[in-house]
């Protein structure tokens, strides 16, 4: 299909959406979006598997994420769109690709809204025992659904302050950790390299442990795509995307790799508290911070609520963009007050249904749903890389002035990133714990691709 029949001009797609996000919103969304709940919650299992070599695992997965962000930033600066990678995939490969990438990501985000609500409610019921979890999830859903229904600037304000709290918390953690490692924090002695070389050494479980840690680290990177979706509703989309992408490298290096290095230096990797309390709580307790567990629960609660808010926003905009491009029920594209309110409500309802399934069908339907979304982010990354390979040449030939952000060492590093994604798929197929997720996500992707291709053929004939 010729590219002229595939493309949807960004200005047409976003004509009805408001531009209520300011540069400070985008900057803080970019800064805080990289600090997801997965960093605080999921990193303990990775450390338990890989030991101190978890730093290498996070470095490798961080490099891959940096390449993905650079590719996505190049396309989003050239073609700002609330559909982000879904719109880019459609430009590059046709409507079937945009349909597959977009709707699979929508299912992922909506399900994540429910999961984050459950996680946040679990923390609150720990403080207020006897209160029902589902009621707290419903309350959080109503608050963030209402904020997103009212105006996009409400989403921006929530994310601005959530991000500020997350950045402040992890920055303080890094400062305290570095001081403790250096032995200059009052009441603490420097551990030196004892925790890095003791208890089995830097690679206590060998290469197998490192590979398990690598898989755990890949899925800890969440929320990086939100800034490219949000940029379409900002005052200056191109500048916002360019700024976010150019600072992605130091943000990932500082927040993820830096904090992992501090934790495994301060705390023995095989300490039970790394898994039971969480690595950040274990590190804070190690240096004698009173109430560390409660402090980190507050930070994790903020991270979960931030992700919940961002995913409601992101899912509604992805759905809106898909429908605007003729790939979904027309009602989802209805906009009032600059907000796709039907899409917001639909995404919230889907998320809350996932919550109800966790109570009603915890042993069959709910695990099936979790497995189905387990590897969606990798599928999306592959669409991003392939789209960038195809679109870069087209932009260079037709509109080179749009290349405000350029992928490094193109096309070599794009192929390196694709090879890395294939390697992760192979690792998932090797591990029993992730194999089911890989197959379930693959099945959903194939079904969506078939439906998208059939719909593309129908539209082409009509």
From TrEMBL:
The stretch of residues making up the signal peptide is none
The keyword Transmembrane belongs to this UniProt entry's keyword annotation: yes
Alphabetical keyword list: Amino-acid transport, Membrane, Transmembrane, Transmembrane helix, Transport
Bilayer topology reads: Multi-pass membrane protein
| Ranges that cross the membrane | 54-72, 93-114, 134-152, 164-185, 210-232, 252-269, 298-320, 341-360, 366-391, 403-430, 436-455
Q: Into which family does the record put it?
A: Belongs to the amino acid-polyamine-organocation (APC) superfamily. Amino acid transporter (AAT) (TC 2.A.3.1) family.
The protein's name: Amino acid transporter
């Amino acid at each position: 299909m010729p590219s002229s029949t595939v493309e949807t001009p960004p200005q047409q797609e976003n004509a009805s959406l408001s531009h209520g996000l300011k540069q400070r919103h985008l900057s803080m969304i970019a800064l805080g979006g990289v600090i997801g709940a997965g960093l605080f919650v999921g990193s303990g299992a990775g450390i338990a598997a890989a030991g101190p070599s978890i730093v290498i695992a996070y470095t490798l997965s961080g490099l891959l994420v940096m390449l993905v962000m650079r590719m996505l930033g190049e396309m989003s600066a050239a073609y700002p769109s609330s559909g982000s990678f879904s719109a880019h995939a459609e430009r590059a490969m046709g409507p079937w690709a945009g349909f597959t990438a977009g709707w699979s990501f929508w299912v992922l985000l909506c399900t994540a809204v429910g999961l984050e609500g459950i996680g946040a409610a679990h923390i609150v019921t720990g403080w207020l025992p006897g209160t029902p979890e589902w009621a707290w999830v419903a309350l959080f859903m109503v608050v963030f659904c209402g904020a997103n229904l009212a105006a996009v600037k409400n989403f921006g304000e929530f994310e601005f302050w959530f991000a500020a709290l997350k950045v402040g918390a992890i920055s303080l953690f890094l400062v305290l950790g570095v001081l403790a490692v250096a032995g200059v924090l009052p009441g603490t002695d420097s551990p030196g390299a004892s925790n890095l070389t003791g208890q089995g050494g830097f690679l206590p479980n060998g290469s197998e442990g490192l590979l398990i840690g690598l898989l755990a680290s890949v899925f800890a990177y969440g929320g990086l795509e939100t800034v490219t979706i949000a940029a379409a509703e900002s005052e200056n989309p191109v500048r916002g995307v360019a700024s976010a992408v150019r600072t992605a490298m130091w943000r990932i290096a500082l927040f993820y790799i830096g904090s992992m290095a501090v934790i495994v230096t301060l705390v023995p990797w095989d300490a039970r508290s790394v898994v039971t309390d969480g690595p950040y709580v274990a590190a804070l307790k190690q240096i004698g911070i009173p109430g560390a567990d409660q402090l980190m629960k507050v930070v994790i609660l903020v991270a979960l609520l931030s992700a919940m808010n961002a995913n409601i926003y992101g899912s509604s905009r992805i759905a809106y963009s898909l429908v605007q491009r003729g790939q979904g029920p027309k009602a989802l594209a209805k906009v009032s007050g600059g907000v796709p309110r039907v899409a917001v409500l639909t995404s919230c309802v889907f998320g809350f249904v996932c919550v109800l399934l966790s109570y009603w069908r915890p042993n069959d339907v709910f695990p099936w749903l979790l497995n189905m979304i387990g590897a969606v982010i990798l599928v999306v990354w592959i669409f991003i890389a392939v789209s960038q390979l195809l679109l870069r040449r087209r932009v260079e030939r037709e509109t080179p002035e749009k290349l405000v952000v350029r992928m490094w060492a193109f096309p070599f590093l794009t192929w390196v990133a694709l090879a890395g994604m294939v390697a992760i798929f192979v690792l998932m197929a090797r591990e029993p714990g992730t194999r089911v997720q890989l197959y379930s996500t693959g099945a959903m992707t194939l079904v969506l691709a078939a439906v998208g291709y059939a719909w593309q053929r129908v539209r082409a004939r009509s």
